User: Fold Sulfotransferase from Acanthisitta chloris.
Amino acid sequence: IPFPRILTTHLRYDSLPKSIFKNKAEIVVLFSNPKDTAVSFFHFHTNVPSVPSYSSWDEFFSKFLSGNSIVAVTDYHAVTWNKYTEDKNTMVIKYEDLKEVEQMLVKQIARFFGISPMAEQIQAIAERDTFQAVRDKA
Assistant:
């Protein structure tokens, strides 16, 4: 894969190849609010026939709280990354911030990667990658 490489994954920290950390790759980690994650997984389970479904939100939420759902695995995923959020090669972004502070977040991400985009580029990226723009493309 030619440089620079941009890879996306849902893997836990401890499941990634050690070479990523040995080579000091820059990593952006996206965390979601646990409530939003639970609601999203509930809809996923409800709408995808190949995964187990739940008869109600109450049934799903009960399993979620007891750790007997795939969401519990997601929580473990967050825990594995939490240990490394202060690492200088790791940037943490909250999903909720993507919806509210687009241009500021674009600047922060660019700075993290050592890039100095012009104001017009920042605005274009923020506009192109809004939730509505992504929905319209889908």
Observations:
- The two ends are 26 Å apart (CA to CA).
